[in-house]
Structures are given as C-alpha cells and as structure tokens.
Amino acid sequence: MTRPGVLFAAALLAALQVGQVARAATDGLAPPAVEFSFDGPFGRIDRAAAIRGFEVYRNVCATCHGLRFMAWRNLGDLGFTEDDIRRMASETLVTDGPDDLGEMFERPGRPSDPLITEPFANANAAAAANNGVAPPDLSLKVLERGAPYVYAILIGYEDPPDGVDPGSSYYNPYFPGSVIAMPKPLWGEDVTYADGTEATIEQEAHDVTTFLAWAADPTADERKRMGLRVLIFLVVMTGVFYATYRRTWVPVKRGDDDL
Fold it and tell me: What are the backbone angles phi and psi of residue 28, rounded to the nearest 5°?
C-alpha cells in the first residue's frame, strides 16, 4: 500500500474509533450478557426471584420511584396469600379524601391501593430532592428499555475515568451520556432475604429486575402458555388436515391419472 493509502486508512480507523467513543458516550455501553428466566418465547417468571425483587423494590427503590400500575392485590399472582396482602397493605399510609369537612386524610392501605405510591407530592418536589431530575415511575421500564439495561444500570456505578467530571451526579457507563443523577441504589446486603439467598449487588439487581419484568407485564406467562397451546393445536390440526387430504383426494387424483 502506498504512503497516501496508509495515511488514509489510519485516518479512517481513527475516525471510526472516535465515532465509537462518541456513540458510547451518547447511548451508553451495551449491557452485559445476563440471563433471565423469562427470556425467550418459553421463558417464565421466576416467582421466588420476583418475590425477592419485590422486597428490594419495597425497601430501596420505593423511596424514589413509584409503581402506579400495580395494586397490592396483584401480589396474589406471585403466591402471596390474601392475609399477607392485607397485612402488608395496612402497614402503609395512603392519602385519601376529602372527608366531610373537605380535608384530605391518611388511612391504612387496602389491597386495592397502588402497590407503591408516588413518594413525592409532585414532579417539582421529586426533582428538587434528586439532583434536579424527577425519578421516573418504573412500572413499564423493563418493557421500555429491556431487562439487561435495567440490570446494567443497577450494577454499573464506578469511579469516573480521567477527564470526566460528573459534578454532583454520578458516573455509570451504561447510562446514556454516562452521567446519571440517581445515586448508587444497591450496595449489597440492602435487604435480608427470607429464603436465605445471599444479597449481593448482582443478586439484588437480578431479582429486582425480575420483579419489574413481572410488574410491567404480569400476564406474560399466561400468554406464552396460551401461545404454546395454540402452536400445538395448529401442528395437530395440520397433521389431521394432511391425513384427510391424503385419504380423500389422493385416490381421486390417481383415478384421474388412470383415465
């Protein structure tokens, strides 16, 4: 290769590298490879992991993030009993009203109340308490960005590289722009799992992501089961129709050929 060609190739390679760095800084790093029980058309929500994830969400995430599309009664789908649901709901205070005097009041929660209420009075209050950025409701976050992204954000906090100053925010290479207003939420041993599972950062992140996947689409398992039944039905009926075709029309065609 001639010298101009070498220089051109080097310049092209440098440009591609700069483009990759810029794209990584804008979009964030690709999430690490991680497997979830609900992956694929035949995957199912790991109920035990989702229950552990609910404990993480309730004790850690709920201080900033709401979950407005789920009610306490929905936990029955994860295996909680009605008594458990009533007890846990009653341990929360819900703003209700107005009463006869036109005043709002607080009462114990009910199974029909939202699972995780909004922790702030309004978006401005939420932003003022969180580096100027209101924490989003996480009801549909897994459907919006995917489970690997949520998991990556939770485990991705690290010291910023040289030349990067996040200011009052934090460095997370998986977040678009790599600078995130949310402080590191998980440190390990944030909760004590009732089933004895060790509560490492990775385990907590995996469990709460599983819970959020269930919360975002609680009927996914049933739809997958129904889809499998439909596929089996179609395969069986295809065989029946083909056997009927062979029995009814093949002899007719052979008779036509003989004519």
Answer: 85, 160
Summarize pLDDT for 63-79 with one digit per residue, the tens.
999 998 899 999 999 99
Q: What is the pLDDT of residue 220?
A: 86
The arithmetic mean of pLDDT across residues 2-20, rounded, is 40
Q: Could you give the dihedral angle defined by the CA atoms of residues 67, 72, 77 and 79, in that order, rounded to the nearest 10 degrees?
A: 120
- Per the CB < 8 A criterion, the answer to whether 113 and 73 are in contact is no
Q: What percent of the chain has pLDDT over 90?
A: 59
DSSP bridge partners of 106: 95
Quick one: CA dihedral 86, 211, 124, 129, positive or negative? positive
